[in-house]
TrEMBL record:
Coiled coil: none annotated. Keywords: Signal. PANTHER family: BLR1237 PROTEIN, TRICARBOXYLATE-BINDING PROTEIN. Pfam families: TctC. Belongs to the UPF0065 (bug) family. The lineage of its organism: Bacteria, Pseudomonadati, Pseudomonadota, Alphaproteobacteria, Acetobacterales. This is Tripartite tricarboxylate transporter substrate binding protein. It comes from Siccirubricoccus soli. Residues 1-22 form the signal peptide.
Amino acid sequence: MLHRRTLLAAAPALLAAPALRAQDANWPNRTIRLVVPFTPAGTTDIAARILAERLTHRLGQHVVVENRAGAGGNVGSDFVAKSEPDGYTLLMATVSSGGINYSLYGSRMPYKPEDLAACGLMLQVPNLIFVTNSLPVRTLKELVDYARANPGKLNNGSSGAGTSLHLTGELLKTVAGIQMQHVPFRGAGPMLQEVIAGRIEVAVDNLPSVIGHIRDGRLRPLAVTTKQRTPALPDVPTTAEAGFPDVEATAWFGIQVPARTPRPIIERLGREIDAAVKEPETKAKIADLGGMPPGLTPDGGTSPETFEAFIKAEIAKWGEVVRKSGATVE
């Protein structure tokens, strides 16, 4: 009797397994949405649209971008974490939503690292420290000297509290011993307009979303936050060259899905992302924006396993930065 009851209890799962495998094999057979947890025009949005176009081509189904901004990327990320784990809702994860926010928001985080599964890293990009053209500084040292002479009078903008841009600004203030008022925006687009207009004097942004304004002379670059200069702006020094080696930060962007998404779908997405970022057309677009390839696998690509390990390391790294800087969000 016990043996019979055990078989009856297991029957639904046994029957469901072939159906699930068949569903995985047929994926995708309809439109996929790629959720961007920030407003349009920022680096996350730009990267997502490049990847969506290539995945549409490779998967044979439309991949459409959907912007769900708020709380430093938490709103859109939480939406994906709680979505059906069927491979039709993807997240354009960032260093903030996938790394920084777990420490910065603490118990207020609406989702946990284990609620999302990694598929693949698309690119890494430098952050750029820049100023409005009306501010009388042309180097990072001159900015620090100006801030010291005018404590608390400068506003520094970012695309949102908890982003790597916010934390880079906090690092600069901590390392240089200066005071500036952080002004978070709901995305890079509105923040950049305020800096161009001169209402925000200093800002940090991911290179891809600000590089057009730099090249057109609407904003003045001071330093990139990576160890090496970027070929996209070869005349702009690194923070180390400018005298502040501890102000180092690299932003990243990749795909995550709800944690219970079937592994065959995750593996397929990982393969397609890896192939897409290695395409000459995609590599050229990334390079033009000042971005760097994933670089997680020996051939410079990405995989679900390497991206998962990368995210875990980033959570630990940025947790230490949050602790040392004392950064908070309201």
